[in-house]
Amino acid sequence: DQAVYAYSLDDYDWWAEQSEREFFPGLFGENLTIRGLPTDMHVGDRLLIGEVVLEATAPRIPCNTLAARMQDPSFGLKFREAARPGIYFRVLNEGDVRAGDAVTAVETAEHDVTILDLFRYKYRLSHDPDELRRYLVAPIAERMRSEIEHALESF
Q1: Tens digit of pLDDT for each residue in 78-130?
Q2: How many angstroms separate the CA atoms of 23 and 64, rounded?
Q3: Is the pTM of this model over 0.90?
Q4: Dihedral (CA of 142, 98, 82, 69) sign
Q5: Can you say how many angstroms the Cα of residue 46 is from the centroid of all Cα atoms in its chain?
Q6: Other C-beta atoms within 10 Å of 128: how many?
Q7: Around Cβ 89, how many Cβ atoms within 10 Å?
Q8: For residues 57 and 64, what is the distance between their CA atoms, to the nearest angstrom?
Q9: What are phi and psi of 122, to 5 degrees?
Q10: For residue 87, what is the enclosing H or E element?
Q11: How far is C-alpha 121 from the geometric centre of its chain's CA atoms?
Q12: Which of 53, 59, 98, 122 is an S-S bond match for 93, by CB 3.0 to 4.6 Å?
């Protein structure tokens, strides 16, 4: 469900504009760095890279590992505030991917849950049960699904 982490090269450009630090592909630990990767894909949208098919499942939630990698204890908060989390994907069809391969984003239009919806969910102090049920209809990553199901049980 979270086999591949992709980050947008455009978002790295944004980070570089905000900081005097150098930002480069792979810095956030992603498997793929893609120019033009939409920051706010819908869960279930797909990337086609040759014969490889990836399905968007969840945002990255910053952790201490990212802060340590960035050598900045406050980087998790900066990452959260930037709302440029990158996207985890499940692999629907395996294959080889090489630098420079063409990437096609395919909107499935099957679900109205976005990666940023799930990212923001993680930081809310209270939740609407109808919103949580809406998230569960989408093909979200199992770890997040379990967390949302647990939250829903509290209502």
Answers
A1: 999 999 999 999 999 999 999 999 999 999 878 899 999 999 999 998 999 99
A2: 18
A3: yes
A4: positive
A5: 13
A6: 10
A7: 25
A8: 22
A9: -60, -25
A10: strand 87-93
A11: 13
A12: 53
Quote the tokens at residue 23. 């930002």
Q: Which two tokens stand for residue 30?
A: 């992603």
Sign of CA dihedral 37, 23, 13, 119: positive
- What are the phi and psi torsion angles at 93 (to 5°)? -145, 125
d(CA 119, CA 98): 29
What are the residues whose beta carbons fall under 8 Å from the beta carbon of 128, sequence distance 6 or more? none
Q: DSSP H helical segments within the chain, as ranges?
A: 9-18, 64-70, 75-82, 115-121, 129-137, 142-153
Tokens of 138: 């989408």
For 78, the token pair is: 């900066």
Residue type, 87: I
- The encoded tokens of residue 22 equal 């150098």
